[in-house]
């Protein structure tokens, strides 16, 4: 053997690599405890030679702290079934690497190339996907390098032999080894010749090689006499040949005659113990690198979406909203989802322009820092609205498309009834809209219809229960509730919960006494104290009061009731406030639908309908992904009425938005109507439920609304504006400023900076804008910005966006308005005085009795959700400006136990618009 000739041990080098990878995995776990590098090994059939390799890979993964899963499929697996498995693994964030063990041991034909190409390039740790192969072929080493060639390169580097300028010969042209090996050597500046078993004068060619890589699959084909003295020989072959001296009768050899090459070459890899361990080590290295990329994404505080905004074609005069919306072609929602960091398994497509987003994203990103949290509210509006939604959309377009910040708009889904009957839509306006407009305003993904179905299912169950209890014996009722199935009775889980509430600890349906059967079966609902109504997502004034039970089949069990608009259903409020499926289930169960004849609340769970409602609402809990005119993301979810319920989009939409946008990003959400209604409920109800701390308030105002509050003529929807609103009138404007100042004061009471957005109209003047700006700043607003987003989209809101960014950099001193331990009456007084400017409140005897009952039944510590007109700070819609020390009359009160609040009624509030 020549002096200095070395056996190039892949076993030793692989051990060093595994030790390094072990430290890298530990560092990933230190930074993100829940992130464990995961490898999925897919096998079809059960060939024992494949099983040996799989066990080696799993053992290596476990040694370095990785998670490896052997996904073994039967030999009967079809190509489509295998593709479906690969697709599932591609979308599973727990796996950072996927390999498909070859050969495929299948009874049915499977295209192996199709399968390797089905593995996502981002998880193709074998480096066999055509995209990764193509990268290597063009010198792009940013993807995954094929494991065996990469291991060979590592071994060559360990010899100290310079690759650049060397003459390399690769014997073999396979996709897995020979071809990519030649590419890696070429891009390392070697001069490369690829040969194979049919190459003429192969021995003479090999004799010239400084670096020889053999992967031809023929035992001991290359002889020592062919090897150039001092060459580096890398033997990738592994072949079994007869050997009677071995117990098995076989031994493993390479493609090179090892004993003959040793005296000639400077370095030779043994078989086994050479290239094989390096292949496994490189597989582990690729998987760890994949996990490191995910980790960098999660911990990189400077992460920015690779989002491509859609350009706007601004025109003057500004076209109609519908013309603008239809002129812009939205990007495919699957592309938008990918741009903002969603993975395919978290997105359910509804066509190409809208998609549901799974709550699974919250689990995946649970350790991601939240984005800044911004709420958009308004002053007391005119009946025309002051462009709160338009401002929100324009602001997010500015933040995302122009300031290059990760930013998501969270909007409520508009009710179909007001869209047809009053508003005409709620997608924004001008060049600040959500598109497609028609989808946004009508049906969307069916959430409101799901709420309607669940609400009315509960109503039907309630009335059916009243009917059956009035017409059935105790035993007959019991047999209906706990029917015998194949001769045996069994309580459902929801029935066991009811038994527990009744203090009955029995679980055997046959063990109940007659008295226990009666207590279990009879709710004894008082027909005159039913608080649950049916709903419909249409403005139908003739359903405001109805009589039900008039059919002869109902045996004169009639009662008066009503319909409400679907978005006023307590189920809609629950959808908006639930933090997840289990929370929603608990809230639905607690809904009080009636009182029994003893005055005890009857819940949805008592009626046994909780699970059925959950089935109807299981998809409605997921927000819908849409986009603005500039292609920036919007999450649309829930739509509780703002003057009856709390008027905010959902907690889960905000939560998902804050995780996707990340620490340097922004989530801009809405609060219905003015600060006295939507913003107050956003803080005291929604933020209390979610635990989120807001960073800033954007308060939308208009010159038009302030002139109305200054004593201007009545503004009526559909009627032309009077002269006072069409020309400069500083005196009228100044008289209306107290309304704006009161709303600024309301925001500041929560310790959050308030940015005033002056939503400009074409009839405004610079002097009017300046008057509003100075007054707002003097009243403590962080800033006051004139915003022209309606005419110019995000560009017109760029200054507003910068003001919001600056405000969010302030330290939040957020505090709630009241403590839940206060009495119901004291909480009402606190809101009335602090938010509205009232001096006293007036509670009639009916309200006082209800407050007493709610307190006795354990509801006294719930927050308050005031139902009040949005057209005035007072309870009288005709009173404008900012009156003080007035009397606020509370003429009714109701309980929303599932939503988790008590609703005092100020004045006449209709739950069914006309």
Automatic annotation (TrEMBL):
Biological-process GO terms, alphabetical: tetrahydrofolate interconversion
Organism encoding this protein: Anopheles christyi
EC number in record: 1.5.1.5, 3.5.4.9, 6.3.4.3
Keywords: ATP-binding, Cytoplasm, Hydrolase, Ligase, Multifunctional enzyme, NADP, Nucleotide-binding, One-carbon metabolism, Oxidoreductase
Known pathway: One-carbon metabolism; tetrahydrofolate interconversion
Known catalytic reactions: (6R)-5,10-methenyltetrahydrofolate + H2O = (6R)-10-formyltetrahydrofolate + H(+); (6S)-5,6,7,8-tetrahydrofolate + formate + ATP = (6R)-10-formyltetrahydrofolate + ADP + phosphate
Subcellular location: Cytoplasm
GO cellular component term, pick one: cytosol
Entry protein name: C-1-tetrahydrofolate synthase, cytoplasmic
Entries under PANTHER family matching the protein: C-1-TETRAHYDROFOLATE SYNTHASE, CYTOPLASMIC, C-1-TETRAHYDROFOLATE SYNTHASE, CYTOPLASMIC-RELATED
Record-annotated Tetrahydrofolate dehydrogenase/cyclohydrolase catalytic domain positions: 8-126
Pfam families, A to Z: FTHFS, THF_DHG_CYH, THF_DHG_CYH_C
Family as reported in the entry's similarity comment: In the N-terminal section; belongs to the tetrahydrofolate dehydrogenase/cyclohydrolase family. In the C-terminal section; belongs to the formate--tetrahydrofolate ligase family.
Occurrences of domain Tetrahydrofolate dehydrogenase/cyclohydrolase NAD(P)-binding (ranges): 146-293
Subunit structure: Homodimer.
Gene3D superfamilies in the record: Formyltetrahydrofolate synthetase, domain 3, Leucine Dehydrogenase, chain A, domain 1, NAD(P)-binding Rossmann-like Domain, P-loop containing nucleotide triphosphate hydrolases
SUPFAM superfamilies (alphabetical): Aminoacid dehydrogenase-like, N-terminal domain (SSF53223), NAD(P)-binding Rossmann-fold domains (SSF51735), P-loop containing nucleoside triphosphate hydrolases (SSF52540)
One annotated GO molecular function: methylenetetrahydrofolate dehydrogenase (NADP+) activity
